[in-house]
Write a structure and sequence with these properties.
Layout: H1 2-21, H2 43-60, H3 68-109
Helix pairs in contact: 1-3, 2-3
Length: about 110
């Protein structure tokens, strides 16, 4: 039990560190949910969030009977999913900034 808890805490720390260093902070503020039609989160963002949630549940489902490889793989999958989610969110932010700049440019051109 102690071994599993240490590995879980290490995995949580690695994931939190990856998200913090990337500026995500690990919280869901939903500000990046805009899509081109403004009807909600884009399919890509929804898929990335779902993948992260699945990977996070996989880590949560680890038991004392889990092998070192299963534990490592679960944590690695969660970190990879967090990285992919961050990339999609960052891309969404960049698209939003471009759209805002384009709108300002068009407004100034009138």
């Amino acid at each position: 039990m102690k071994r599993l808890m240490c590995k879980r805490l290490a995995g949580v720390a690695v994931t939190a560190l990856a998200l913090t260093l990337a500026g995500c902070g690990g919280s869901s503020n939903n500000k990046n949910e805009s899509s081109t039609d403004s009807s909600g989160p884009s399919a890509e963002l929804t898929s990335a969030r779902s993948t992260y949630e699945t990977a996070d549940r996989r880590v949560g489902n680890l038991t004392d009977d889990s092998t070192d490889m299963e534990i490592r793989d679960a944590h690695n999958a969660r970190v990879a999913a967090a990285t992919a989610l961050l990339a999609v969110e960052t891309d969404s932010e960049e698209r939003e900034k471009v759209a805002e700049a384009k709108g300002r440019s068009e407004a100034l051109a009138k």
